[in-house]
Write a structure and sequence with these properties.
Length: 335
């Protein structure tokens, strides 16, 4: 039952264990405090959202750190993190209610990177947002580092779920959203999916369940760069076809609200994420059209950069190109 005795959408009427008077009072105080925190955070966010140029600059700086971390580690995925960078920056710097100083704040929004192999992009944005020093990014994928090749929620503050086995991130996201409904909590849950991993059946089981319970506090963001590492197998190799056609139509068929955006245009991303959070009655899928390797011309649209390490010369070229992008943003702002 939802707070107040009303059944949740989809007929959920799960019973809860009774609490004693003291525990019930404590729980109510915590819930009220969390609700007040959430309302205050929303008000502050509305007054202090970054400009679109600030978001663009942050994205370019994030891409520089991503490329440097992969080069330093000598291993790791690169193309997918580059395509996801703008979306992650938009979430952590513009949309989500979070407090890096309190990574376990109960009222925080939740984020799950289901495409866990793109972990360096998430680590980079977490570091830039203040969860840990950016210098630690140079320990990526090293033995005993908190920044492993796939996210480990027990190792690093700010991670909500350990991921990497593709197709498994939407299920815990739906569970978190359902739990928030049951408890009457105000947080929103965001899950980033890869377009290759949504070939996995578990994604669609979770999609069915989320729509069945009307989890409008859940948003899936599809990084739709159209370029998985392999593609569809056939005799003689793999095709390079789009991994899944019309993903928006498929999510609609499962009962989801669907929005589309340019995943590299911060105005478009902001509009889509705001609309997703405001929508009621159904979970939302944002199909973000992106480019694998975005930001570095020689990486863009090349599947070989799915998990390729740049040479010293390639690193220098990438950093120079990204510096030029940052300088151009400053020139546009001054014009």
């Amino acid at each position: 039952m939802a707070p107040g005795g009303a059944p949740l959408p989809g007929g959920y009427n799960g019973a809860t264990m009774p609490l004693g008077p003291a525990k019930a009072a404590t729980g109510m105080k915590e819930h009220v405090a969390m609700t007040v925190d959430a309302a205050s955070e929303r008000a502050n966010q509305a007054q202090s959202r970054p400009s679109l140029d600030e978001l663009r600059r942050t994205s370019a700086e994030a891409r520089k750190l991503i490329v440097q971390a992969i080069h330093h580690a000598g291993a790791g995925h690169l193309g997918g993190p580059m395509s996801a960078a703008d979306l992650l920056v938009a979430l952590y710097f513009d949309r989500m209610r979070i407090d890096p100083a309190r990574p376990d704040w109960p009222g925080r929004d939740r984020f799950i990177l289901s495409k866990g192999h793109s972990s360096i992009a998430l680590y980079t944005v977490l570091a830039m947002r203040g969860y840990f020093p950016t210098e630690e990014l140079m320990t990526f994928d090293a033995a005993h580092s908190r920044l492993q090749g796939h996210p480990d929620m027990h190792a690093l503050p700010g991670l909500e779920m350990s991921t990497g086995s593709l197709g498994q991130g939407l299920s815990p996201g739906a569970g978190m959203a359902l739990g928030a409904k049951v408890r009457g909590d105000a947080f929103h849950t965001w899950v980033m999916l890869g377009d290759g991993e949504i070939q996995e059946g578990q994604i669609w089981e979770a999609a069915f369940m989320a729509a069945r319970y009307g989890l409008d506090n859940l948003t899936a963001i599809l990084d739709y760069n159209g370029l998985p590492q392999f593609g569809w197998p056939q005799r003689g190799g793999f095709t390079r076809e789009i991994p899944i056609d019309d993903p928006g139509g498929k999510f609609r068929a499962f009962g989801w609200n669907v929005l589309e955006c340019d995943g590299h245009d911060h105005a478009s991303i902001r509009e889509a994420l705001d609309a997703a959070q405001a929508f009621t009655g159904q979970p939302t899928c944002v199909v973000a059209h992106t480019v694998k390797g975005k930001g570095v011309s020689y990486m863009e649209g090349d599947f070989n950069w799915h998990a390729k390490v740049p040479s010293d010369e390639q690193l220098a070229s990438a950093l120079s190109e990204l510096d030029d992008q940052i300088a151009a943003i400053g020139e546009e702002a001054a014009a």
